[in-house]
Write a structure and sequence with these properties.
heterodimer, A: alpha+beta, Alpha-Beta Plaits, four-stranded antiparallel sheet, B: Four Helix Bundle (Hemerythrin (Met), subunit A), ion transport (chain B), ATPase_proteolipid_csu (chain B)
C-alpha cells in the first residue's frame, strides 16, 4: 500500500553480549546498519578484515568442493528446480552441522586435493601418450637408440626427410663420397620422414656422420636408453596405473558426496559469519560497550526492543529520521498488488517524498495486459501454469514469486478480455466446426469483435488512455496537496485538467470525431460553452502561471507558452494507447492464420494430425511472442506515459543485515 | 484490365510481408550477434538476452498480419478471388505500404537499439526493465504503421 515508514534504532550494550545481540539482529533481519557516529577517543572501530577474509575463504572452499562434487557425482536437476527456491533447515540440524565444521572443512579440502591429483594424473597420461607417439617409428629396432655398438662397429640412428628407400640413401651418399663402407637399415618410412640406422666401422664414424649430415641426416631429437618396444610397454603400464588411480579418485569423491548437504550448510554458515564480522568491523566500540545503529521499519521496532531489552543490559533508543536523511525504501502492498512491486522496482523505487505507485499501477497493469493478449484460452493457460507453479514451489525466490503472482492475475484479465472479444485460440472453434464437422458455429463476443469494428475499439483504447493519464496527473496533484503546495496544485494540476477536459468537450461533437466514431455526439449548448470556456481559461492560466517563479514578465509568458506546447505531448501520449488495439489484433490475426494453415489438410485422418501439430506448435509460438509483446508494451505504458506524469523514482532499496544464505534458509528461532 | 487490379492488390500484400520481414530478419540478426557475444561470457543471461533479441522480430509479424488480412479481403484465401478494379487494387497497395516501409526501417533501428540494450544487460543485469524500454520505444512507430495499414485495408470496399 505504501512505502514503509523507517525509524532509526540505536542499541548500546555491553561488549560481553556483543556476539549474541548481533546474531539476534542478524536472524531477525529487519535492520539496515547505518552509523552516524564518527570515531573519537572513546569509541573505536575494530579491524575484522582478517577474520572476515578467512570466513569468506572457507565459504569459497565449500562452494568449490560442491562444484567438484557436482562434476563427479552429478545430482539431476529438473528444469523447474530453479523455481524451487532455498530449502528450509531447522536450527537443530544447522547447529549439528556447525559443530562438526572442522571435519567438514577437512572433507572439503580432501575433495579439492583429490580433484587436483586427478587433474595432474590426466596431464601425465597425456604427456606419456605423446612420448609413445614419438617412439612409434622406432618400434622395430631391437636395440636402444643410444646403443654403443660393438668393438669395431658403431650404430648411428637418425631421421631424413622424405620417404626414402635403402637404394635412395646409398645413391645420395655415393654422390658425396665414394670410399665409405656403410650398412644402412631403414627402420620405418612415413610420408615425409624416414627413420634409419647406419652401421659403420668405429674408426670411420666421424667421417660417415659428416657425410650423412651433408645429405640431410639428423640424429633423433629425444633418445631413450631402452629398447623401444620395452619402453613402450613400460609407458603403457604407467598409463594404466594412472588411469586406475583416477578411477579410484572418482570413486572416493563420489563416496564423499554424502557430505553435500553438510557442505551447503557449512558454506552458508561461513558466509553468514563473514557478514556478521563485516558489521562488527563497523561498530563503534569503547572499552566495555558497543553501539549499533540503523534503520528499522517502524512496525518492527517494538519487536526488536522486546527481544533485546529484557535479556541483556542495554539501552535501545528509537527516534524519527531527520528531515534531510534519505531513508532506504521498503514497499508493502496487499496480495494482489505486491506482484507488481517488481515492475516498480525495475523503474526505480519511490524517491524521497514520493508515494508508492504500486497499488494503482497494478490495476492498470493487469487491465492493459489482458487487453493486449485478449484471448480467453491463452489467459486460462497463463493463469493455470502460474497457479500450479505457485502452489508447487511455495518457497521460490521473492522476485520470481512476485512475477508469477502478477502473471496469474494478468491471465485472469486476459480471460476476461478474451470472452469480451470472443477470442478462444483465435477463431479455432469456428474453424474446427466448419472443417471437421461441417457446421457453422460462431462463439459470440460478449462485447464486440475488434476485427470487425476496429475504429470502435480504437476510441475505447484512447478513452482508457485518457483515464490512465488523468489518474497519473491526479496522483501528482495528491503529492502536491500532501506537501501543502497549494499554488503548485492549482497551476500545474487544476489548470491542466481544465484545459484538457475543455478540449475533450470541444472535440467530441466535432465532425472529425463523428467520422472516426461513426456516431455523432451532440451536447446541449451549455455544455459546449462550458467546454470552450474551460479550455480558454485553462490555457490562459497556464500561459500566465507556468513561469511563476520568474520576475521578468516576458520570460514568464515565454515559459508559459512553452508549457502550453506540452499539449502535443498529451496528444502523443493518448495516441500511444492505440497499441492496445494493435497488439490485441496481432494476437487474434496470427491465431487465425495458424488455424487456417492447420485446417488446410481438410477433413481426413492426415488432416486431423496436421491440424493438431500445427495447432500446438503455432499457438505456443503465438502465445509466447504475444506474451512478450504484452509484457513489454504494458511496461512501456506504465513507465513512459503513466509514470511520466507524476513519478521519478530514484529511491534506495532497503538492505537489512540478515542471514544472506546461498543454499538454505535457516529457520528463525521460535523461543 | 480487371486482372491488373488483383495484381496490384497482391503486390501490396507481398510488399507488406517482404519489406517488414526483411527488416525484422536484419534487426533480429543484429541483436543476435550482440546476444551471442554476451552468452560466450556469461551463459546464465541467456533468457534475458533472448528476450531482447526477439524484440525487433515483431515487425515481421505485423507485416504478416496485414498480408493475411489483405489476402482474405481480396478473396485469395478460400472462396473465389474478388473482382478488383485497378483503382481498388492500387488503393490496397497503398494501404499496405506503411507497415512494409516503416517495418523495414524500424526493425533495423530496433535491432541496433536491442544490441545496445543487450550491452546494458551484460554489464548491469538488474537494469533489465529499463534496458528493455529503449527498443520498445522504436517499436511504437511500427505499431502506428500497423494500425494505419490495418484500418486502411479494412476500410477499402471490395
Amino acid at each position: 500500500m505504501a512505502v514503509l515508514q523507517m525509524q532509526r534504532m540505536s542499541i548500546c550494550a555491553l561488549k560481553r553480549d556483543r556476539k549474541v545481540i548481533l546474531e539476534k539482529l542478524q536472524s531477525m533481519g529487519v535492520m539496515e546498519i547505518n552509523h552516524i557516529l564518527e570515531e573519537d577517543e572513546d569509541f573505536h572501530r575494530m579491524d575484522t578484515a582478517n577474520a572476515r577474509s578467512s570466513f569468506e575463504k572457507a565459504a569459497a572452499m565449500a562452494d568449490q568442493a560442491l562444484d567438484i562434487l557436482q562434476y563427479y557425482a552429478p545430482v539431476k536437476q529438473s528444469m523447474l528446480s530453479s523455481l524451487a527456491g532455498k530449502e528450509l533447515v531447522d536450527r537443530d540440524r544447522y547447529s549439528s552441522v556447525v559443530q562438526k565444521s572442522d571435519v567438514l572443512l577437512k572433507t572439503a579440502r580432501r575433495i579439492q586435493a583429490l580433484d587436483k591429483e586427478s587433474a595432474e594424473k590426466k596431464a601425465a597420461i597425456l604427456k606419456i601418450e605423446n612420448s609413445i607417439e614419438s617412439l612409434k617409428p622406432w618400434l622395430s629396432l631391437g636395440v636402444p637408440l643410444n646403443f654403443e655398438g660393438t668393438k669395431h662397429t658403431v650404430m648411428i640412428p637418425g631421421v631424413m626427410s622424405g620417404m626414402l628407400t635403402r637404394e635412395n640413401v646409398y645413391e645420395k651418399l655415393a654422390e658425396q663420397t665414394q670410399e665409405l663402407d656403410v650398412d644402412i637399415h631403414i627402420i620405418s618410412a612415413e610420408q615425409d620422414t624416414t627413420y634409419l640406422t647406419v652401421l659403420c666401422l668405429r674408426e670411420m664414424a666421424t667421417e660417415v656422420e659428416e657425410a650423412l649430415r651433408s645429405i640431410g641426416f639428423a640424429r633423433p631429437s629425444s633418445v631413450i636408453g631402452q629398447v623401444p618396444a620395452d619402453a613402450k610397454s613400460d609407458m603403457e603400464k604407467e598409463i594404466e596405473k594412472a588411469g586406475e588411480r583416477i578411477s579410484e579418485i572418482e570413486k572416493e569423491i563420489s563416496d564423499l558426496a554424502v557430505n553435500r548437504e553438510g557442505l551447503k550448510i557449512l558454506s552458508d554458515y561461513y558466509r553468514v559469519r563473514g557478514e556478521k564480522y563485516e558489521v562488527l568491523g563497523e561498530l563503534p566500540q569503547s572499552e566495555r560497550t558497543f553501539l549499533v545503529s540503523g534503520y528499522v521499519p517502524a512496525g518492527e521496532t517494538a519487536k526488536v526492543k522486546k527481544s533485546l531489552s529484557g535479556k541483556f543490559d542495554c539501552v535501545v533508543d528509537v527516534e524519527e529520521l531527520k528531515e534531510e536523511e534519505e531513508a532506504p525504501v521498503l514497499l508493502k502492498n496487499n496480495k494482489f498488488s505486491s506482484g507488481s512491486e517488481g515492475i516498480v522496482e525495475a523503474f526505480g523505487l519511490p524517491g524521497k517524498g514520493e508515494i508508492d505507485p504500486t497499488t494503482i499501477m497494478s490495476f492498470f497493469y493487469v487491465f492493459f495486459f489482458g487487453m493486449m493478449l485478449s484471448d480467453a484460452a491463452y489467459g486460462v493457460i497463463l493463469s493455470v501454469v502460474c497457479g500450479i507453479l505457485l502452489l508447487k514451489f511455495p518457497r521460490m525466490g521473492r522476485g520470481i514469486k512476485q512475477n508469477m503472482q502478477l502473471f496469474f492475475w494478468c491471465g485472469i484479465s486476459t480471460l476476461f478480455w478474451g470472452i469480451m472479444f470472443g477470442g478462444y485460440f483465435g477463431d479455432a472453434i469456428t474453424i474446427i466446426a466448419r472443417v471437421f464437422f461441417g457446421r457453422d458455429i460462431v462463439v459470440p463476443a460478449i462485447w464486440f469483435v475488434p476485427l470487425d469494428e476496429p475504429m470502435k475499439l480504437l476510441i475505447y483504447c484512447m478513452l482508457f488512455g485518457v483515464i490512465h493519464l488523468f489518474v497519473g496527473l491526479g496522483l501528482k496533484g495528491y503529492m502536491y496537496l500532501k506537501d501543502k503546495k497549494y499554488m503548485d496544485f492549482f497551476c500545474d494540476i487544476v489548470l491542466w485538467y481544465m484545459l484538457l477536459v475543455g478540449l475533450l468537450i470541444m472535440l467530441l461533437p466535432s465532425e472529425l470525431f463523428a467520422s472516426i466514431a461513426q456516431t455523432a455526439i451532440v451536447f446541449p449548448p451549455a455544455v459546449n460553452a462550458l467546454g470552450k470556456w474551460l479550455a480558454i481559461l485553462g490555457a490562459l492560466g497556464i500561459l500566465l502561471m507556468s513561469g511563476r517563479g520568474r520576475k521578468n514578465f516576458g520570460l514568464r509568458i515565454a515559459l508559459g507558452a512553452y508549457d502550453l506546447y506540452n499539449i502535443s505531448g498529451w496528444l502523443s501520449d493518448v495516441l500511444s494507447y492505440s497499441r492496445l488495439l494493435a497488439l490485441g489484433l496481432a494476437t487474434g490475426v496470427i491465431a487465425s492464420v495458424i488455424n487456417q494453415m492447420g485446417s488446410m489438410g481438410g477433413k481426413s485422418i492426415t488432416g486431423v494430425i496436421i491440424f493438431v501439430i500445427a495447432f500446438i506448435i503455432g499457438h505456443l509460438f503465438n502465445m509466447a511472442i504475444n506474451l512478450l509483446g504484452a509484457y513489454v508494451h504494458t511496461n512501456r505504458l506504465q513507465f513512459v506515459e503513466f509514470f511520466g506524469k507524476f513519478y521519478e523514482g530514484g529511491g534506495r532499496a532497503f538492505h537489512p543485515f540478515k542471514e544472506n544464505t546461498k543454499y538454505a534458509d535457516i529457520e528463525e528461532e521460535t523461543k | 484490365m480487371n486482372e491488373l487490379g488483383m495484381v496490384y492488390a497482391l503486390l501490396g500484400a507481398a510488399a507488406a510481408v517482404f519489406l517488414s520481414g526483411t527488416g525484422s530478419a536484419k534487426g533480429v540478426g543484429i541483436a543476435g550477434q550482440a546476444a551471442a557475444g554476451v552468452i560466450s561470457e556469461d551463459p546464465s543471461k541467456f533468457a534475458k538476452v533472448l528476450i531482447m533479441q526477439l524484440l525487433p522480430g515483431t515487425q515481421g509479424l505485423y507485416g504478416l498480419i496485414i498480408g493475411f488480412v489483405t489476402l482474405s479481403k481480396i478473396g485469395l484465401l478460400g472462396g473465389g478471388a474478388a473482382d478488383i478494379s485497378v483503382k481498388t487494387g492500387l488503393m490496397v497497395l497503398g494501404a499496405c505500404l506503411p507497415v512494409g516501409i516503416v517495418g523495414l526501417f524500424s526493425a533495423i533501428s530496433q535491432g541496433k537499439t536491442s544490441a545496445a540494450a543487450i550491452g546494458v544487460v551484460a554489464k548491469k543485469p538488474d537494469q533489465f526493465g529499463k534496458a528493455m524500454l529503449f527498443p520498445a520505444m522504436v517499436e511504437t512507430y511500427a505499431i502506428l504503421a500497423l494500425l494505419i495499414s490495418f484500418l486502411a485495408v479494412s476500410a477499402i470496399q471490395i
